[in-house]
Amino acid sequence: MSVLVTEQLSIGYPGRHGQSRVVMRDLNLVLKAGELVCLLGPNGTGKSTLMRTLAGIQKPLSGTVTYCGEDVHRLSAKALAKAISIVLTERVNVGLMSGYALVALGRYPHTDRAGQITPHDRDVIRWAVESVGGSLIAPRLISELSDGERQRLMIARALAQEAGVILLDEPTAYLDLPRRVEMMRLLKRLARSTQRAVLVSTHDLDLALRTADSLWLMRPDGAGIFNGAPEDMALDGRLNDVFQTDGVTFDEAVGSFRIIEAFRGEIRIVGDGLRATWTRRAIERTGFKIVSDNQPATFSIDVDQDDAPYWKLTHDGTHASFDSIYALIVAVNALYD
After folding, report:
1. In Å, what is the CA distance from 242 to each residue of 24, 168, 313?
2. HSE-CB of 169 using CA atoms within 13 angstroms
3. How far apart are CA 26 and CA 224, in angstroms?
4. What is the pTM of this model?
5. In this predicted structure, what is the pLDDT of residue 266?
6. In this model, does residue 246 exceed pLDDT 70?
7. 167, 56 Cβ separation under 8 angstroms
8. For residue 117, with 0-12 CB atoms within 10 Å meaning exposed, 13-18 middle and 19 or more buried, which class applies?
9. What is the spatial distance between Cα 9 and Cα 86, in angstroms, rounded to a whole number?
10. Which domains does the chain have, with CATH numbers?
11. Mean local confidence (pLDDT), 67-76
């Protein structure tokens, strides 16, 4: 089911004398319940501007953003908070507030004028905390929590809001790799289990390709947004169109970026298995081209999967053996240079 829809949406900033600065124009986008969508694009393309416009924080230059058919920018503050919740990049300075109290703020749109928390509100807060695995950290002060723990509770606050759409601007910005993976898996699980539409702005293309149901790719020329499944984006070249720069290209075969540079020489690698795979990566990283058996090569490397020494380097009829890839690369560099 379509939850958030934009029609002919143009985003940007109003200027003096009617001269507005348009960041993107004529956007027709759809967020569906139960899906995790990742918003990607080079720096300066307007990801944060789009997020603020979708959230009702910033007015569009033209066009509409609707939530279940209602114009987001005409909703009252409480109605908007019940429709859309947003988690921004900035660290939250909440003094001596506990994690539980932070999550409880998400119930504000549902409380009366006195702001009283009802038993039902407490049940929702408890559910939100448990959904993000935050039961042990919620009693602690926010100032005592790590970035990852704090971000979990910010997501719990958004869940406690019971909004149909959750927008997150760079939620993994301050996290290390394991925590980034954990956070994206959590968001995908929550989108599925709660049937909310979740939009995540991120720079982590690899993680987005592995977790998102759909991608929104902001084109660097301001001409619009590509959208579709990550696999379709890779196959039809749109990922490369958006992110390719001098010396870097998107390799569709492996689903990641590759540095383009002049090869220092050619190396033949003989062997299979995990050691051979990582040997090939190391050789390419060092600037050599890997060639097949029938092509001329500067060096030849035999990789033994089972018995040490695992690597044997052949050059001009001489042989040398190594027990680590690091030692092998040092020797290759010395011979070539």
Report:
1. 15, 22, 40
2. 17
3. 7
4. 0.81
5. 87
6. no
7. no
8. middle
9. 19
10. 2-228 (3.40.50.300), 266-336 (3.40.50.800)
11. 94
